[in-house]
Amino acid sequence: MNGLGGLATGFVAALLEAWQELRIHKLRVLLSLIGVTIAVTSLTTAVAGAGMAEQLMKEQLERQGRPAMIYAYANDPTNMGMPTATNETSAAFKKTAERFKVEHTSIVGRSPGVQATHQGLSVDADVQVVDPDYAPMHRIFAQRGRWLEEADANNLSPAVVVDKTVVRSLGLQNAKLPATVEVGTGGEKVSVTVIGATSTQDYGTMGQMWMLPETYEHWFAAAVPLGDVSYAMWVPTENADELASNFALQMRAELPGYQVNAQRVDYQAWGADESLDQMAMVVAAIAGVILLLGSLSLLNVAMVTMKQRIREVGIRRSFGATTGRVFFSVMMESVVATAVAGGVGVLLSVALVSNPTLINMVLYGGIDEMPGFPVGAALLGMGVSVAVGALTGVLPALVAARVRIVDAIRV
């Protein structure tokens, strides 16, 4: 116990001594640590920013369907082989989904573009006919108002949810929801009720509008028949391809004469997740370069200043400081200094990366689920700063350890 106590006392004493030396050489410390602070801030921000970018990319990819997303198509050969939705096909899909115990399902139909108008403003919008489960299946959130519910099928006014493009184009940013909008189809206009607005937006000029199948059938199908219909289901990723094949066989048995296909369509099925790994590798390479430049700058300043401290080290040796004590104290100066610089760098990185306004400006389209600052990035920043301090402190510490009393006299 006495041995451990002595080591602890010596370690604390070395830390205090290093801190006192840093206070004495404030200007030297400040100049040498500016580069370290910038390097750690850049490194931590790069790693944390990569997490944000990965989150945004993941959101964009999952809006096409979360893993594992399977789409089923029922083609009637008598209808030129186009995917159709009838009571018969919908009933067959529902029955097959229940047999396979699929919990999240939705019809997905698209209608030709319509024109939405509100108080003199207008925008072209793409209508998607979906069930309520479509939102969680495609990572869609109603940031204002709410998403579609089954009860909306009985509304006296058609209930719709719109995206950012429609909201911005019709000047609904500050309007209270629900709001009334005119939708033109086939020369006729129908007043619809906007019950929710999502955070998503199309990268083109078209907006998006979602409504229930019952709503479309009642209000719009007579003017513009629904086309390009498919059936979506969200299932576990394990054995998803096999499930798709078996699902198609079973649904085909429910629809004699129809051509039924089912295939997985989420981003993991076509290897887009590999791009996320490649992005992480690129960020790691950039972080390595940043770290290398910061450590070289610190090492250069430390070596130059150590040559100016030979007299100081010689005086300490004359008062009985051992080689090990001199080596450890000089190295700890670098470690303590870089630890402080690393802490400042991490705080600056947190301030930058955790700013939602800044993130939404940098990342086009924004981010729905703002993740907290990655703890791993903060720990990496602090760990790297301490490691850099230890590595860059070795050479100056070796120079100091070799200083003799006679060298100090000659200076």
Can you tell me about this structure?
It is a single chain. The protein has 13 helices and 10 strands. Strands 2-3-8-5-7-6 form a 6-stranded mixed barrel. The chain is elongated and about 105 Å long. The mean pLDDT is 79. The chain has 2 domains: 10-62 and 272-410, no CATH class; 69-264, no CATH class. The chain is of the alpha+beta class and 411 residues long. A hairpin with a 2-residue loop joins strand 2 and strand 3 (121-130). The protein has helices at residues 2-24, 26-62, 87-99, 134-137, 164-169, 213-219, 240-254, 273-307, 310-318, 323-353, 356-362, 375-401, 405-410, and strands spanning 69-75, 104-118, 121-130, 142-145, 159-162, 179-185, 188-198, 207-211, 227-234, 259-264.
Tell me the layout of helices and strands.
Layout: H1 2-24, H2 26-62, E1 69-75, H3 87-99, E2 104-118, E3 121-130, H4 134-137, E4 142-145, E5 159-162, H5 164-169, E6 179-185, E7 188-198, E8 207-211, H6 213-219, E9 227-234, H7 240-254, E10 259-264, H8 273-307, H9 310-318, H10 323-353, H11 356-362, H12 375-401, H13 405-410
Parallel strand pairs: 3-8, 5-7
Antiparallel strand pairs: 1-9, 1-10, 2-3, 2-6, 2-9, 4-7, 5-8, 6-7
Helix pairs in contact: 1-10, 2-8, 2-10, 2-12, 3-7, 8-12, 10-12
Order of helices and strands: HHEHEEHEEHEEEHEHEHHHHHH
Largest sheet: 6 strands, mixed, barrel
Shape: elongated
The helix fraction, in percent, is 40-55%
Overall strand count = 10
Distance between the termini: 43 Å
Output the strand order for the largest sheet: 2-3-8-5-7-6
Uncertain residue ranges: none
The mean pLDDT is 79
Instruction: Write down the oligomeric state.
Output: single chain
Helical segment tally?
Answer: 13
How many domains comprise the coordinates?
Answer: 2
The rounded Rg comes to 32 Å
Structural class based on helices, strands and sheet pairing: alpha+beta
| β-sheet strand percentage | 15-25%
